């Protein structure tokens, strides 16, 4: 191998040039790969999704203000509420090498005229050195030796934030200046070449890691007005267009039934019991014997409801009222409370009452005229007194929601705002010292009432589904709750959020009919005469249900099965489907079936062992075959929800995921080409069955409330369906 030799004079030239380079650039070039580039790094994030931990946050109230707390905002969900208080945390940039800058992003909502109160600040122990920023885009830094600022309110009075509206802000502070973005757009920019030239930005940037504390709602000379902030992020170095862009807001409360904070749910289904607290209930108290008593009765639209008869002292029909344990007593409220109920007044009684809270000293009431009033500790107010502009419609069911907050009230009919403290038919007050008095009564009174003494007595009303919640519901939640509890045809849901694309509902209330499609029903088909027939019967927990008797060919009790019209036939179920039902197996039968879909070629089944199987077009699978790990509990009611999607299945028990195609106790398959085969069968089969032919026959089971949805349920919807239908 030949080696090339360099001439000596070229080597000398190369050496001279190399030395010259070092003299010009420094003593030595850094080794390749060791260059240091400014790296964007998230150092602190505050989402305010949970209660503020005292280990992390120090909370303080200004004189006359309130301690910061987590509040529920209709747009943003859970947020930090600052109303006369501030919060302190450790500075996530403390002792961090920030290099070229510092960036801060957050959501902000501020009251009007809040130009000088700090949104946030960084400070040392005694606040002798601080950096703060206000809604006026006032950036200020001072210490014992330095004082600099831009956009001081006395010089610039136009705030970039619209009052009482959420804005997403991104603030970038570099060694060359600062830039503020509001809702993704550049709002202001101050560079060393402009009027901010006197601001020592390199020194400012290096001050951030020197200051040990980060404050929200504190730092400037002026106490801030009310603010809310959320999703705060603190970055080392300079953010990009990705962080500046307005993030998607899923916001608000996640869907639940009943809504988060509900402590009272009185279904009035032949009982005064609070379905969320078995220790709480109610009673009918008769003052003067009623000729036609107040009582539970069957309503053509809503099923079982409470009928309160009109009455007062000396009334020809007598007088009785209902007393209920107050589920709000002793509870901590979040910004207020909500009371909701379905009301149908047979006639309009202008003065007598429907809902009443009365602690013996103070009284709060609402009636069918829309008359909302309070009298007691802290004065009185009347809204709609002697005014029927917002009256309910006699003979018609209306979902009434009353929100009470620290600064007012709002009343919704059927999910829409009807009136509030500022927009109403008639409002008057006397010596009224604020709505905190009303809230205090709700959390201290022992009872609430239907038709009890205010100055008046009992108005005629049909009443159903009463909810009491430890916070005011958002408008979206009110709309959802209205949809979730709207009923027709004796109690059939119409379009609940917990059952998307509902196409079949079989309440099995002495009928095989589909309550959402009168053209569809079912029948009992007897193959071998039953000694004890399958039949509707009364259950102590769920009322009228279907009792399927165990049976097969040659069984001593005979065999019968039930055939139903398939409500999913012909439906668009490309995204999937859901089948839900309440089941109570008297005993566990390992092989015979409860729910079956059979089109003559393909078969799908589910039984009390949790055995889910399919055999037909596109192969077969068995899940839980000969395995009782996920068996139902004999003698106990369980809501079973089965989702099928193009790529998977899920099975929920009582709203919680129990098993799936990926997580199960035992799974086997053969030549199985996918779950679209099952979707196709649901779309084409004429019927579904209880206890029909697979290879096995009918397992013993109590069955109630069967739902078919042309869409799979989410985990939240599965939980909501359980909460909405348990008894």
UniProtKB/TrEMBL annotation:
UniProt keyword Ribosomal protein, yes or no: no
Named from the GO MF annotations, one term is: hydrolase activity, hydrolyzing O-glycosyl compounds
Gene Ontology terms describing biological process: carbohydrate metabolic process
Q: Quick check: keyword ATP-binding in the entry?
A: no
Endpoints of the signal sequence: 1-21
The protein in question is named Concanavalin A-like lectin/glucanases superfamily protein
Which InterPro entries does the record cross-reference, listed alphabetically?
ConA-like_dom_sf
For this UniProt record, the keywords arranged alphabetically read as follows: Lectin, Signal
- Highest taxon listed in the record's lineage: Bacteria
């Amino acid at each position: 191998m030949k080696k090339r030799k360099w001439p000596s004079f070229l080597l000398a030239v190369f050496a001279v040039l190399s030395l010259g380079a070092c003299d010009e650039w420094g003593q030595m070039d850094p080794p390749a790969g060791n260059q240091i580039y400014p790296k964007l790094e998230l150092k602190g994030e505050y989402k305010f999704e949970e209660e503020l931990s005292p280990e992390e946050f120090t909370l303080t109230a200004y004189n006359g203000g309130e301690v910061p707390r987590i509040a529920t905002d209709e747009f943003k969900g859970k947020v930090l509420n600052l109303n006369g208080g501030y919060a302190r945390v450790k500075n996530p940039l403390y002792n961090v090498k920030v290099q070229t800058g510092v960036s801060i992003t957050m959501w902000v909502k501020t009251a009007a005229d809040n130009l000088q109160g700090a949104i946030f600040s960084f400070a040392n122990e005694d606040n002798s050195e601080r950096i703060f920023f206000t809604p006026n885009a006032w950036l200020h830094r001072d210490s014992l030796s330095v004082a600099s600022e831009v956009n001081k309110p006395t010089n610039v009075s136009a705030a970039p934030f619209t009052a009482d509206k959420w804005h997403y802000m991104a603030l970038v502070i570099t060694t060359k200046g600062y830039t503020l973005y509001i809702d993704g757009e550049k709002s202001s920019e101050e560079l060393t070449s402009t009027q901010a030239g006197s601001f020592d930005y390199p020194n400012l940037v290096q001050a951030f890691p020197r200051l040990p504390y980060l404050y929200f709602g504190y730092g400037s000379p002026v106490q801030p007005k009310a603010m809310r902030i959320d999703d705060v992020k603190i970055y080392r170095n300079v953010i990009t267009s990705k962080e500046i862009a307005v993030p998607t807001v899923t916001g608000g409360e996640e869907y639940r039934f009943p809504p988060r904070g509900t402590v009272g749910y009185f279904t009035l289904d032949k009982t005064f019991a609070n379905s969320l607290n078995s220790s709480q209930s109610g009673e009918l108290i008769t003052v003067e014997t009623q000729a036609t008593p107040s009582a539970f009765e069957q309503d053509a639209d809503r099923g079982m409801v409470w009928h309160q008869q009109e009455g007062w002292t000396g009334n020809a029909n007598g007088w009785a009222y209902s007393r209920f344990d107050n589920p709000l007593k002793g509870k901590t409220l979040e910004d207020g409370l909500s009371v909701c109920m379905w009301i149908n007044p047979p006639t309009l009684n202008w003065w007598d009452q429907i809902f009443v809270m009365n602690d013996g000293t103070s009284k709060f009431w609402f009636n069918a005229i829309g008359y909302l009033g309070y009298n007691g500790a802290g004065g009185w107010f009347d809204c709609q007194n002697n005014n029927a502009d917002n009256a309910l419609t006699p003979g018609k069911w209306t979902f009434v929601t009353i929100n009470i907050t620290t600064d007012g009230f709002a009343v919704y009919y059927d999910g829409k705002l009807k009136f509030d403290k500022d927009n109403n038919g008639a409002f008057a007050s006397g010596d009224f010292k604020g709505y905190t008095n009303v809230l205090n009564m709700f959390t201290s009174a022992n009872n609430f009432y239907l038709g009890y003494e205010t100055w008046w007595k009992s108005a005629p009303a049909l009443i159903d589904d009463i909810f009491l919640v430890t916070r005011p519901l958002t408008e979206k939640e009110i709309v959802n709750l209205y949809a979730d509890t709207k009923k027709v045809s004796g109690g059939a849901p119409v379009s609940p959020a917990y059952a998307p694309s509902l196409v079949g509902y079989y309440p099995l209330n002495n009928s095989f009919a589909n309550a959402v499609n009168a053209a569809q029903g079912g029948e009992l088909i007897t193959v071998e005469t039953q000694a004890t027939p399958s039949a509707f019967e009364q259950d102590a927990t769920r009322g009228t249900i279907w009792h399927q008797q165990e049976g097969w060919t040659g069984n001593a009790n005979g065999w019968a099965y039930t055939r139903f019209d398939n409500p999913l036939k012909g439906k668009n179920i490309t995204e999937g489907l859901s089948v839900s039902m309440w089941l109570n197996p008297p005993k566990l039968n390992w092989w015979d079936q409860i729910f079956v879909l059979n089109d003559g070629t393909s078969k799908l089944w589910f039984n009390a062992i949790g055995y889910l199987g399919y055999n037909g077009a596109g192969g077969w699978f068995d899940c839980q075959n000969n395995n009782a790990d996920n068996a139902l509990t004999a003698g106990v009611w369980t809501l079973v929800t089965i989702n099928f999607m193009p790529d998977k299945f899920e099975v929920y028990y009582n709203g919680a995921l129990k098993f799936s195609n990926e997580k199960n106790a035992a799974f086997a398959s053969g030549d199985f080409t996918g779950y679209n085969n099952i979707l196709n069968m649901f779309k084409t089969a004429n019927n579904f069955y209880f206890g029909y032919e697979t290879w096995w026959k009918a397992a013993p089971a109590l069955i109630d409330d069967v739902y078919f949805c042309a869409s799979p349920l989410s985990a939240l919807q599965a939980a909501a369906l359980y909460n909405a239908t348990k008894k």
